[in-house]
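Take a look at my tokenised protein here and describe the backbone shape.
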Amino acid sequence: NNLKVINQNAFENCALEGTIDLSSIHMISDYAFAGNQKLEGVKTGDTLISIGSYAFAGCKKLADITITADKVKYGSYAFTGCESIKEFTVNGAVLPEGMFYECDSLEKVTIGKDVNDIGEFAFRDTILSKFEIDKKNKTFETPDGLYIIANKGKELVAVAPSVEGEFSAATMGGNDKVEVVGNGAFSHNTQINSVV
């Protein structure tokens, strides 16, 4: 297969079904497969370099995503509205803004060793209850899996949307280290009822 690039809007709002094999693809552009509501799986290969913004947005049945490349550049909102994704491992430097927005079945995200930036609203409107971070990641840590901190515990980057109760800087990062709450860290978390 000689196909290397799928350009912007190439298969947007088509009737693709089942699993598609994109193992020869290097680049999936913005909106390339957006709106394919019956698409269930995507298999990519080691040559994948990037997945564009909104590339799979609204693919409601998309659940099985295989990404084997070491580092992939993801565009913002790449998987927004993919209601069937339950878990995902991010391989790349940036987990962009809104990447999993409205992925309301998403339970587990593993942050890879190379991720050094997490965009706002990345986990908004998911049921994510716990984060996992590769032990080799030098930027982020998650002491108990419920939140992600950076800058030696001084910045609260993200909180699992299912966290409930009260927010206290003393309990996140320990020893009152948290000085900054990041953009959208608690956005749409209806379980937080107090800030102390």
